[in-house]
Amino acid sequence: MKSADDIFEILKKEFGDSILGIDKETPTEPIISVDPLQVYKVSKFLRENSDLQFDSLMCLSGVDDANGNKTNNADGDEIIEGGTFSVYYNLHSVSLKHKITIKVSTSRSEPKVESVENIWKSANWHEREAFDLLGIFFLNHPDLRRILMPYDWDEYTTEVSRHPLRKDYKNPEFYQGMKVPY
Amino acid sequence: MKEYFRNTWLGIYTVLVGMKITFKHLFTPAVTIQYPEVKLKLPERERNRLYVNMDDCIGCDQCSRACPVSCIEIETVKSIPGEDLGVTSNGKKKALWVTKFNIDFAKCCYCQLCVFPCPTECIYMTDIFEFSEYDRNNLVYKFATLSEEEAQEKKLNFEKFTAEKEAQKAAAAAKPKDDQKTAS
Amino acid sequence: MALKTEHMVLNMGPQHPSTHGVLRLELEIEGELVRKVTPHLGYLHRCFEKHAEAMQYNQVVPYTDRLDYLASISNNLGYALAVEKLMGIEVPERVEYIRVIMSELQRIASHLVAIGSNGADIGALTPFLYLFRDREHILSIIEETCGARMLYNYIWVGGLSHDIHPDFVRKTKEFCNYFKPTIVELDNLLSYNKIFIERTANIGVLPVDTAINFGASGPTLRGSGIKFDLRRDDPYSIYDRFDFEIPVGKGLMGTVGDCWDRYYVRIREMEQSLRIIEQAIDHIPDGDVQSAIPKRIKPPKGTVYKRVENPRGELGYFIVSDGSVNPFRVKVRAPSFVNLEVLGELCKGYLVADIIAILGSIDIVLGEVDR
Amino acid sequence: MYQYFYDLTGNTILATLIVAVFPLVNVLIVALIGVYLERKVSAWIQDRVGPNRTGPFGLFQTVADFVKMLQKEDATAKDIDSKLYNIAPVLVFTGSFAAYAAIPFSSKLIGSEAEVGLFYVIAISSLVVGGILMAGWSSNNKYSLLGAMRSAAQIISYEIPTAIIVLSIVMLTGTLSLDKISNMQTAYFWNWNIFGGAEFGITKFLLIPFMIVGFIIIFISTLAEVNRTPFDIPEAESELVAGYFTEYCGMKWAMFMLSEYGNMFAVSAIVSILFFGGYHSPIGYLGNTLGIEWLIPFEQAFWFLAKGWFFILVQMWLRWTLPRLRVDQLMSLCWKYLIPYAFVNLIIIGVISLL
Predict the structure, then answer these.
(1) Could you read off the pLDDT of C324-343 as tens digits, one per residue?
(2) Which of A90, B97, C257, D303 fits a 20 to 30 Å CA distance from C184?
């Protein structure tokens, strides 16, 4: 049963600079932030290490931090430039009964995160959903396709309305001849 | 070989047990009720169609703000000081003409979030659940008691009243400037 | 020269009598043997997460009802606990007791639908109607308390929308005594029926490591023999005060972790829920259920992940709040969404008829899968 | 009966027509009451009320269904193999209706006293398989093809246990003609084959257990031949939507339903003839006691229909209790359980009949 600080110490000792820091003030749970392209190695370590044993990924959620600055793109829609997307991994160890949250933030222009699919199989669909709704690319994911939105959503939508959960999302006018706005 | 006979015996025995139970159910009376003739008595906290008691409504817009699907539209017009709008049942003096109070029951999700914040408890849920329509627009219920012309007339009064007030204010603003001029 | 054979792609499409909602399974079959199953989702996607970002905290509760519409009380409970943990609200005892009783009643009602439709998929239509007759009792008890039969909007952040109805306690006790013999009847009619056993034993065996690796939870995980129940291992509200054991698949009729085990775990779980209700029903303290409800819910800036034992598994809410009145991001970890991933692994090499039995035993609800 | 009408009318064609009309009327009545009874029995078993809106107690429900079927537009899928598609329902119906030629409704009312009646019935009822395969293949729908393949395997493999049990009965009675078999089980119920046949003596008591086993086997296998639960795999609602008749609607679909209920009655008639004394009443005839000679055939017809309907009710009762078997379990049940038991039963009955 390890507290968040010991886990952070172990990770810091193991990976050095790719662990960016621990954030304890914001309420309810301390969050360890990790460099997006090292997340695969860190997760493999988190799972294999004998006194960590995080064998079940509870939830993987992509969040649009919307911390860029607002500008207008070519055809006048208001979009957010810069800023980050972050992906939170809530991990839990069934055997040792401790929990930790890992945060990874990538830039908004070309969001790339290492996929943890072959460490925890349940991440497969969570990552596909994060890609589908937010547009975060997960490198070497077996089949990164849309999962919830219709498959041909890209043909009918402009750049701004491609991923619905982005803060600057705008409804497309028509989808296959059907009027989208209610 | 033993497994073979056990399977046959289990096969026959469990089928007969199942049949005994269904045979027993052949004679138990039906549990279902004949809906249109026999109606189920609904509990009094039932949440079906909303009803707004318009003479209690003070047009405070609390319910339309609380509604998650925003299916309540209210438009009000301020009353001129002279007019008397009557008093709500719990003694509050009404100050706004409610010209439009529409609830769109096609969008309403019957979550009862609008009933709690209402100060005069004029919006509450009845237990009527058979109000299906052929045309979706008929599901938009208009609760406002003012007819079209009255609403127009109230609006005109109010505009006229604000125009007069504007004029007086302008005049008042103009007057002190003269005083300053006169004073300086 | 080998005969060139091609797999026939059978489309168990969104409109099919036994896919528990609008799920499309693309089966690659060879004769009757299924080689590959690829589920296609998204037919019931109603953008719950986008809606939640535009609503205030208390307005999201009716939306959470519609996630897993067969167990809406535990959806509300999960969301309410998450926001309460974020704001650090302490809820009075009476609310805790009523929440436990209500979510256990809801668990029984949801298991009744799960077992009924699992039996109907395999062909036994009569138990389905008997179980719905029993479920009617629970729905009328809840309807008397909060006015709605399925989508309650009952558990709010910090309390409840209505206090329990005066004869709620009497009716629940009546239901407990009424329900015990019907479980025995169901056992004889379906559980030990040779044809039902033949159709479900040794079918869709979920080994332990794939279960944990795929993050399966709830009866699907416990069917494979792992004693993991959030009410016991990660206790929330006041579950640690009641003693109940966690039924686990033991492979009575075949290997551990087959369809029959998952089905049987659900029946024993219903009995355990009855035990919890009987322990809780007599000690409901009095008090005001709406005392701890904050006038204006404005949680501090931060994130929270709270999980609850929904009848289908581990339902988790990950809420990011930026200090304003509207939640910044609400992510729902739906148990059916994760359990459905196991289906691809589970269905290799079985017959078309088994796919239906396996899908019925995993018990998914598409409202929760597609959000 | 043919002779009676031939004397009446004089020319052969008219007489055969009248004789053929009797079973057709019976099939229609069976379908009419069968559909209604199916809904009512399932309702009572499931604590429901069942149809009660059309006419008193919902009696005209099947008539309403029939009218609905009539006025339904015969929508067919785009590229179906139209010739096979149209022949299939006719073939399936003739397959099940032709079995009535040899079935004696009463001593007077019998289609053709063919010497090889039983052999003819088993042969003709496998015509249905052809029809089902045609329906499944021609409706150009994967589910129908699957359903048709399953039902072909099922009906063919379940004919073997039926044939073996029929063989054991024929060994006992010595004749293949259904009329003679039922005549052998005259008078009271203890003379029925299920209780060891007519002659008194040690063989009668020895036969009883094997006759009961024979009855169970033939009842199960005829249940499978008619595609009734727990063997309704070809049209498994929860897997194959509706199996081979998914693409049919309107009158063509009604033909399939008609043949299903016709088949059900034919099958339960055969079982009652072989084991339960055909048209003989268990407690003697009123006609004899009162001395009215012409009443007996009507009484016999009544008892025959009563036994037929009793078995149909048992089939319905089974349908609403049991889940459905899988295709390979169905095959293993037939080949690994029913056929071995049937053979053993055959040998033992053969030995006993020699005593």
Answers:
(1) 999 999 999 999 999 988 88
(2) C257
Assign domain C8-370 one CATH number from 1.10.645.10, 3.80.30.30, 3.30.479.10, 3.30.930.10. Answer: 1.10.645.10
- C-alpha to C-alpha distance for C67 and C76, rounded to whole angstroms: 10
Nearest residue in chain C measured CA to CA from A98: C234
CA distance D304 to D297: 10
Interval D295-354: pLDDT, tens: 888 888 888 999 999 999 999 999 888 888 888 888 999 999 999 999 999 999 989 888
**Binding partners of C (≥3 Cβ pairs within 8 A):** A, B, D
Q: Decide if A178 is inside a domain.
A: no
Residue A180 lies in a domain: no
CB-CB neighbours of D92 under 10 Å: 27
- DSSP assignments along C117-186, one per residue: HHHHHHT-HHHHHHHHHHHHHHHHHHHHHHS-SS----EETTEESSPPPTTHHHHHHHHHHHHHHHHHHH
CA torsion through residues A172, A174, A180, A181, sign: positive
Of C233, C318, C340, the CB nearest to A59: C318
Structure tokens given for B153: 């007339």
Q: Quick one: how far is CA A106 from the chain centroid?
A: 8
Q: Which of these, A123, A152, A140, lies nearest to A62 by C-alpha position?
A: A123
| Type of residue found at B57 | C
Best of D46, D48, D220, D238 to disrupt the C interface (most C CBs within 10 Å) is D238
D113, pLDDT greater than 60: yes
Chain C residues within an 8 Å CB radius of A133: 49
For chain D, the residue count is: 355
Residue A182, in any domain of the structure:
no
A131–chain C nearest CA distance, Å: 14
Report the residue of C46, C55, C59 to disrupt the B interface, i.e. the one with the largest count of B CBs within 10 Å. Answer: C59
Which CATH number does the domain housing residue A64 bear? 3.30.460.80
Pick from D142, D321, D323: which is nearest to C122 by CB?
A: D323
**Domain B50-158 class?**
alpha beta
Is the ipTM higher than 0.90? The answer is: no
Per the structure, the complete domain to which residue A20 belongs is given by: 4-171
**CB-based contact D238 C198, cutoff 8 Å:** no
Report H helices in C223-371: 230-233, 259-281, 335-346, 352-362, 366-370
Q: How many domains does chain A have?
A: 1
A39 pLDDT more than 60? yes
Mutate: best of D41, D150, D320, D322, partner C, most C CBs <10 A = D322
In chain B, the residue whose alpha carbon lies closest to the alpha carbon of D337 is: B8
Residues in chain A closer than 8 A to C50 (CB atoms): 164-165, 169
From the CA of A127, how many Å to the nearest CA of chain C? 12
**D126 has pLDDT over 60:** yes
Residues of D within 8 A of B27 (CB-CB) are 44
In chain B, where are the structural domains located?
50-158
Flag whether residue B18 sits within 8 Å of chain C, measured between CB atoms: yes
Question: Does residue C141 carry a pLDDT above 80?
Answer: yes
Chains that touch B (3 or more CB pairs under 8 A): C, D
Q: Which two tokens stand for residue A65?
A: 């931090």
CB A167 within 8 Å of CB A64: yes
Interchain pair B22, D43: CB under 8 A: no
**Residue found under tokens 């179980």:** C131
Residue B123, classed as helix, strand or coil, is strand
Enter the tokens of residue B23.
Answer: 């045979």
Non-local (6+) Cβ contacts of C115 within 8 A are: C127, C131, C186, C190, C263, C266, C267
Token pair listed for C46: 């109603």
Rg (CA), chain D: 21
CB–CB contacts below 8 A, B to C:
69
Position A78 scores a pLDDT of 76
